[in-house]
Description:
Low-confidence stretches: 1-7
Pfam families: NTP_transferase
Oligomer: single chain
Strand order of the largest sheet: 3-2-1-4-9-6-10
Structural class: alpha/beta
Order of helices and strands: HEHEHEHEEHEEEEHHEEH
Number of helices: 8
Number of strands: 11
Protein name: Nucleotidyltransferase family protein
Domain Nucleotidyl transferase: 15-241
Mean pLDDT: 84
Organism: Streptomyces macrosporus
InterPro entries: Mannose-1P_guanyltransferase, NTP_transferase_dom, Nucleotide-diphossugar_trans
Shape: globular
Radius of gyration: 19 Å
Largest sheet: 7 strands, mixed
Amino acid sequence: MTLDAQFAHIHPTQAVVLAGGQGSRLxxxxxxxxxxxxxxxxxxxxxxxxxxxxxxxxxxxxAVISCGHLAEVLQEWLESNExxxxxxxxxxxxxxxxxxxxxxxxxxxxRPDEPWYATNGDIWTRFPLREMAEFHAERGATAxxxxxxPRIPWGAVETDEFGHVLDFIEAPPSPYLxxxxxxxxxxxxxxxxxxxGDHERTTFPRLARERALAGYxxxxxxxxxAIDTAKDLTEAAKxxxxxxxxx
Length: 247
């Protein structure tokens, strides 16, 4: 095996982006476009554009985008813009669920015998994917899930053991890790996905029991945000204007 081939089996060069959701909580922004086509205020670029730029910067050369709701709007944007990697789109004729959507899209990956990344179409993030892929390979995992620690949207109160208030903490980090919607999958994982349904309720629990599912914590300070609501758009724009962290 050549050195390039060895790296290809550690650092994926192909990815699937799930972009078929209706984004009902983002209405009216999603009345005339799919969720990944919503622009982050101040950037002039839809979420999918930021994702493709990030994937390309991490060595991905081929991406398959799974479309559904208003697929033609997304396809038109892809065709009319210069992209940093090769993109193929597939359209679900009927909702297959996240697991079924992944399997359907993965069938169009150009190198089925190599590992691949996957990401939800509403994630705006920047962290070292290659490091996540190395973490995945070191553990011999079949699948690896990126884990984030989001900030709690409320202020927290710290007390001592006697109930005295010690401090007020504005939007502290959650004590729990959550699924960040970014994955590394080994080639055999594709066949384990359901034809229809949610892999997080079927495939992932099975792999967890077999100790074949790994969790990679996104490095502290790396930017991550799920764009679910109009408030998320506002917060993302504010973070960009204040810190420039999401560039």
